[in-house]
């Protein structure tokens, strides 16, 4: 089995425990290498985790890159960069790297993301990955034309530009996404999921490695680093 499950009675307990794990990962990385590098999901659920890290007095430089980003201007409400920077605003030692250009141009944004990742080839000290109700993670959506490229373990691609199909009505934008192999290139991998409906998606993906849910590719990748699944109702 390539995963370890952690169940919590509520979201507050999940946030507290995952916050502690990421704090430890950052402190260990800073102690060993002088800095930490994190890949972090957007969305509302993990924002308190990031706020905890920002106020933990970690005492060292931390580089953060989103696991995925919408190709919109940085000032747009749908931009993950905007929310991540706000969450970490109280710690000047945290640098949140943009995956996209200021205007959200797709081709230029992909170049921006790939250039930064090539300049930072070391493993992420920790990656926090969310999952949607359709089984997508990062912005690797079922039905996307280039999903296979994003999931391929043998191509050495760090990021892809992708367009979900169908487009989510709440966020109908092209995306830049870290690929499965780049996310697996981490010292610790944490998948954070809430709600019974998403748990059923996870269960299906765990039992059916080749199902249409992209999360199945993550769970069954055979990575040496175990995947920690954190769930609460």
The first-to-last residue Cα distance is: 23 Å
Main sheet properties: 7 strands, parallel
Strand order of the largest sheet: 1-10-9-6-2-3-5
Instruction: Provide mean pLDDT, rounded.
Output: 96
Helix run count:
8
Tell me the domain tally: 1
For the secondary structure, the number of strands is: 10
CATH class: Alpha Beta
Rg from alpha-carbon coordinates: 16 Å
Shape: globular
From the 3D structure, determine the CATH topology: Rossmann fold
What is the architecture at the second tier of CATH?
A: 3-Layer(aba) Sandwich
- SS content category: alpha/beta
Helical content class: 25-40%
* SSE string: EHEHEEHEHEHEEHEHHE
Please state roughly what percent of the residues sit in beta strands, choosing from under 5%, 5-15%, 15-25%, 25-35%, 35-45% or over 45%.
Answer: 15-25%
Low-confidence stretches: none
Account of the 3D structure:
There is one protein chain. This protein has 233 residues and is of the alpha/beta class. It has a single domain, classed as Rossmann fold. The chain contains eight helices and ten strands. The strands form two sheets. It has a seven-stranded parallel sheet with strand order 1-10-9-6-2-3-5, sandwiched between helices. A three-stranded antiparallel sheet has the order 4-8-7. Helix 1 (11-33) packs across helix 2. The radius of gyration is 16 Å and the shape is globular. The two termini are 23 Å apart. The mean pLDDT is 96.
